[in-house]
Write a structure and sequence with these properties.
This protein is an all-alpha fold and 427 residues long. The protein contains 22 helices and no strands.
Length: 427
């Protein structure tokens, strides 16, 4: 059955069939070939139960929040402000890519949206100032992945929904690894550009007054993040309510900078409907597929496979990490999450591991999948914004950042408190 699911998934995705439809088709195939009773009779109930959750309402709110910030021009001003603060480092404007991606990750909740935002704003600067296209575009693709780690994260909301773990605790757990990855990206770029200065372009130094004046464009994003996260951890709002508060805050910021118009609102709502529909189709399709997989006995089959290997809990985690790395080459990230979580997470918990810690470990592996070919979505987003050059340049540019992510995976396995320190301290 595992072979059928893997081959079927790759074959259907290669036909450019939408991911959500692929998941439904696989579920129908498992029902027909592997089930002794008609599972399709439970389709209506599965569609309803998998989408009837107040938690999932946070997804369109966070998507709308990001859409408002992007389409109102706030992203462009934020990028210009961060340019004044970080371009003195070896690597120059490459650091502004990472810093801007980090700030928008703290509000948008989506890696693809973050990468698209930064790429649209930054790429004209790269061509004008003569930056190395590989490192510059690779930094944008890698920085965009932080959108699913730094809270509020749509993927962490989905993980919490599927595993029934605390979303506020997951948000706290993702904060230190997310900021740690951002810092490690900046250090990696600085080292590379110190060794090979020609890759980093011009280092620009701005006056202190210019840096301070730029803060007016950074403080609103910082305050918006503090408002969203603070309202959750002070008990003033649930994640869903905080997302609604964030949308109101983003609208006020856009209005303050004169970015509100009928066209902006219309485009933001249209973009939100498209992105949310895609996410929910994947979630619902994966729920039906997981239902058929469980009913056909795949969970027991996989559990028996891992048990027969005779591995220790540490060895089991290493095997699971390798599985995610390999699958990440071929399967879209949200699909990879929702298909594997109901099967893998119970096995991990049985081995004595914390589900919140594993959620953060999984997110790092999912981030890696976003920038590894052939299916890494951020690679295509950045290449689309470039409008010139080869995809291979973007792929080569992400190699240093993939190595940083692998180092973070090793650090999380060796030192779980990197993820668990904040949730335990603030319980």
């Amino acid at each position: 059955m595992i072979t059928y699911v893997s081959v079927g998934l790759l074959a259907l995705l290669s036909l450019s069939i939408p991911v959500g439809i692929v998941l439904f088709l696989l579920g129908f195939g498992i029902d027909f070939f592997f089930s002794s009773f008609p599972l399709i009779r439970g389709l209506g109930q599965m569609v309803w139960s998998s989408s009837n959750s107040a938690t999932l309402i946070a997804i369109p709110f966070f998507v709308l929040l990001g859409e408002i910030l992007v389409r109102s021009g706030v992203a462009t001003r934020t990028y210009a402000a961060l340019d004044r603060w970080v371009s003195w480092l070896p690597g120059g404007l490459v650091h502004a890519n990472i810093a801007t991606a980090t700030m928008f990750s703290a509000t948008s909740g989506s890696s693809v949206a973050t990468a698209a935002t930064v790429a649209t704003v930054a790429m004209p600067q790269a061509e004008k100032l003569g930056y190395d296209p590989k490192l510059f575009s690779g930094a944008i693709a890698a920085g965009g992945t932080l959108g699913i780690m730094i809270p509020p994260s749509i993927n962490l909301i989905v993980y919490g929904f599927l595993t029934q773990t605390s979303i506020p605790q997951l948000f706290l757990a993702g904060l230190v690894p997310g900021l740690g990855l951002a810092f490690a990206f900046i250090v990696a770029v600085a080292i590379i550009c110190t060794v090979r200065p020609e890759l980093g372009g011009e280092r620009r130094v701005f006056s202190f007054s210019e840096m301070m004046n730029a803060l007016v464009h950074l403080l609103p994003i910082i305050l918006l993040f503090a408002m969203i996260i603070g309202s959750i951890y002070n008990g003033w709002a649930t994640p869903t309510e905080a997302a609604a508060v964030g949308v109101a805050g983003a609208f006020l910021i856009a209005g303050f900078f004169g970015g509100v118009s009928f066209q902006m609102i219309s485009d933001s709502l249209y973009g939100t409907v498209k992105i949310t529909s895609m996410i929910m189709l994947v979630v619902i399709g994966a729920s039906f597929l997981n239902f058929t997989l469980a009913s056909a006995g795949l969970g027991q089959e996989l559990e028996a496979f891992l048990s027969n290997l005779g591995l220790s809990p540490f060895g089991t985690i290493l095997v699971i990490v390798m599985i995610y790395i390999v699958l990440g080459f071929f399967i879209e990230t949200l699909s990879l999450m929702v298909v594997t979580i109901p099967i893998i997470v119970p096995l991990v918990v049985e081995q004595g591991y914390d589900p919140i810690w594993f959620g953060i470990l999984m997110i790092v592996l999912i981030e890696m999948a976003l920038i590894t070919p052939p299916v890494g979505l951020n690679l295509y987003v950045v290449q689309g914004a470039r409008k010139s050059g080869n995809m291979s340049e973007v792929m080569l540019g992400t190699i240093p950042f993939v190595l940083v992510m692998l180092a973070m995976v090793a650090a999380l396995i060796a030192f779980p408190q990197i993820a668990l320190f904040l949730p335990e301290a603030l319980k």
